[in-house]
Structure formats: structure tokens, C-alpha cells
Specification:
The chain has 165 residues and is an all-alpha fold. The protein has six helices and no strands. Bound molecules: protoporphyrin IX containing FE.
Length: 165
């Protein structure tokens, strides 16, 4: 294994690790921690706020690492001239979705978790309002992350099929 192969292995590993930490951590928050905090009778909201503050550092590191390693992976895939139009178009979609995900996450950073913890929760009335709430805020971020994982797997399949041609 050459030095450049080792470098690429480390870059891929860091990319995947950051994506897993961010999306996995967000899924844990949505599916486990948030429902548990809501059900806890003596929950003051402060634990949720403290957790959000701690997780923020993970998200910011993940964004930085995903961007830096994503650029290296993109150069590595595009420079040999093997990747065809479907690969490049799919990569374009992935980059657009990633930028949206970064913007959503960094937009949330400016909100105070303490104020969020004490914000009154008005129940959504009507089917449309409930559907809108389901795909907004943190849910939208997690759905985007899951879709980006799928698009990344598609990229791998497209590249491997371009290699076989
Ligand atoms: C601008 C940001 C990003 C760029 C430029 C980028 C670029 C890339 C590229 C070129 C690949 C290689 C695909 C292939 O096998 O041909 C890749 C893989 C991957 N990316 Fe990204 N990516 C970015 C952001 C993200 C984000 C936000 C996530 C997850 C939320 C993500 C998750 C993944 C995963 C899971 C893989 C597969 C890694 C592996 O199989 O080793 N990426 N990315």
C-alpha cells in the first residue's frame, strides 16, 4: 500500500467517522434523549440545554472535518477522469444537500439552548401543521443526514460501475 493510499484511507475514515458521529448523535437525541426528557416528571429543561451545548462542539468539528475531507475525496474521484455524468450530477446533489445541512446546523447554533428549553410548546393543530412540524427544525436536519448517507452510497455504486466500463 502506497503512502497516498494510506492518506486516502485515513481521509475516508475521518469522513465516515464525522458523518456517523453527527447523524448518529442526532438520531440518538431525537429518538431517545428528547422523548425521555419530555417524559421525565422533574425535568427542568436544563439537562436538555446542557446536552445541546455539549453536542454543538461535536457538530462544529464534524462540519469542519466533513468539508476538509470531502474536498480531498472529490478531487480523488474526479481527477482520474473515470467518473461519468451520473456521478458528477449525484455529487452535485450531495454537495447542495450538505451545504443545506451545514446552514441549518450553523443557523441553530445562534439560538440559545437555554431559551429553547424554556420555550412554551404549543401543540400543532391540524394535519398540515403536524406534518410541517415533523419535517422542520431538528427533524429536517436528521432527515437530510440520512438522505446524504444514501446519496453517498449511490456515489460509491456509480463509481464502481464506471470503473467496470
Ligand atoms: C461539502 C461536503 C461534502 C463533500 C464534498 C463530500 C464528498 C464525498 C465524496 C467525494 C465521497 C466519496 C464517494 C465515492 O465513494 O465515490 C464521500 C463519501 C461519503 N460521504 Fe461525503 N461529502 C460531503 C459531506 C458529507 C456529509 C454532510 C455526510 C453525512 C451527513 C457525508 C457522508 C458520506 C459518507 C457516509 C460517505 C461514504 C464513505 C465511505 O464509504 O468510506 N458526506 N463524500
Amino acid at each position: 500500500m502506497s503512502a497516498s493510499d494510506t492518506f486516502l484511507l485515513v481521509v475516508r475514515w475521518l469522513h465516515l467517522l464525522s458523518a456517523a458521529a453527527w447523524v448518529g448523535g442526532s438520531l440518538f437525541y431525537l429518538l431517545v434523549l428528547r422523548p425521555a426528557l419530555r417524559r421525565a416528571p422533574d425535568s427542568s429543561g436544563l439537562l436538555g440545554a446542557a446536552t445541546a451545548t455539549e453536542f454543538r462542539a461535536v457538530v462544529e468539528t464534524a462540519i469542519f472535518v466533513l468539508l476538509a475531507t470531502g474536498i480531498v475525496l472529490t478531487f480523488n474521484r474526479l481527477t482520474p477522469g473515470i467518473a461519468g455524468v451520473p456521478y458528477v450530477a449525484t455529487l452535485g446533489v450531495k454537495i447542495a444537500l450538505s451545504v443545506l445541512m451545514f446552514a441549518l446546523a450553523l443557523g441553530r447554533r445562534n439560538r440559545s439552548p437555554i431559551l429553547d428549553a424554556y420555550a412554551p410548546r404549543t401543540p400543532a393543530s391540524g394535519r398540515f401543521a403536524r406534518a410541517l412540524r415533523a419535517v422542520s427544525g431538528y427533524n429536517a436536519l436528521v432527515i437530510l443526514g440520512i438522505v446524504i448517507f444514501l446519496v453517498s452510497d449511490l456515489l460509491k455504486v456509480l463509481y464502481e460501475s464506471a470503473l467496470e466500463k
